[in-house]
Each structure stands twice: as structure tokens, then as C-alpha cells.
Amino acid sequence: MFVRTASERDLVAVRALLVETWHATYDAIYGAERVAAITDDWHSIASLKARLVRPNSEFLVADDGKRLGGMAFAAATTDPKIVLLNQLYVHPACQRQGIGRLLLDEVEASFPEMRTLRLEVEEANAGAIAFYEANGFRHAGRTADCGGGSGWPALILEKRLG
């Protein structure tokens, strides 16, 4: 797999990856019906397309030439030293192959002014928490509204850089 910037031609495949990954990860937590509603909204083609043109952001895909194995989206805050990792997902069939690390490395390289990489993660997503902790993230707090609008509590993790 190699990591590259996403383009509009990737959006159907990115959406499919997100839908499948979300169902595999969150059906047991929120139920399949709720996950379907979330992915229809948050991972619609229109929502993904808006990310492609968002200033001070990076939308990445991991690609092997045949399929997308993962994706990531990060955006700088009003302080360019703080970047939010909004999404990092690896297709269930491609997990534990180093793709998440490749995406994370590219996110870090994409924001040279960044000193803190921050994310929110569902507390019940033990696999994601273990991945982030193994890659240098530490607990920095909690939020009652993961992603701004979900109403779900989440952990806030941060990685200090530089």
C-alpha cells in the first residue's frame, strides 16, 4: 500500500470503506440501524467531497492499485500548531498490516508547523485506543460530544510532536 492525497474519483471507494469499517467497529456498540444512519450522513459523497476542498487539511487514502485499504482526514485548528485527526480508518480485511501507521506518518508529515495531533475516540473502541497509544498518543481529557454533534462521550487523545 502507498499513501496519497485523495481525489474526487476516490470518494465512492472511500465511502464504501467507511461504511464497512463503521459497521464492523460500531454495530456492537450502537446497533446496525444507528450506524447506517450515521454513515449515510457523515460519510455521504457530499460530506466527503466537502473535505477535499477544506483549507488547511489533508485527506489521504492508502492504495495498492486495486483497492483502498484505509483513509485519514486531518485539519489544522485556528492554531496551526494543533491539528485534529478527524478520521483514520483501515478496512477490516487490511488491519494489522501497518496501513494505519503509514496514514498516521503521512498526516504528521503534512503539517510541518504542528506540535500537537489531537483526536477523539469512542471509549468502547479498545482496538483504536490501543493503536493510538502504541503510536505515542496519551489521554488528554474527555468530551461529551464526540465529533461535535453526536452527543456521545469520547476520550480525547493527544500526541506531542517536535
Could you characterize the architecture of this molecule?
With 162 residues, this protein is an alpha+beta fold. Helices cover 37% and strands 30% of the residues. The protein has 5 helices and 7 strands. The chain has helices at 11-30, 32-42, 45-52, 99-110, 126-134; strands spanning 2-5, 57-63, 68-76, 82-90, 116-121, 138-143, 154-160. It has a 7-stranded mixed β-sheet, sandwiched between helices. α1 runs antiparallel to α2 (32-42).
| Rounded average pLDDT | 94
| Radius of gyration (Å) | 15 Å
Count of DSSP helices? Answer: 5
Specify the helix fraction band.
25-40%
Strand content: 25-35%
Q: Distance between termini?
A: 27 Å
Number-wise, the strands total: 7
Low-confidence stretches: none
Which labels suit this protein?
7-stranded mixed beta sheet, 162 residues, alpha+beta
What's the layout of helices and strands?
Elements: E1 2-5, H1 11-30, H2 32-42, H3 45-52, E2 57-63, E3 68-76, E4 82-90, H4 99-110, E5 116-121, H5 126-134, E6 138-143, E7 154-160
Parallel strand pairs: 4-5
Antiparallel strand pairs: 1-2, 2-3, 3-4, 5-7, 6-7
Summarize the structure.
By secondary structure, the protein is of the alpha+beta class. The protein contains five helices and seven strands, in the order βαααβββαβαββ. Helices cover 37% and strands 30% of the residues.
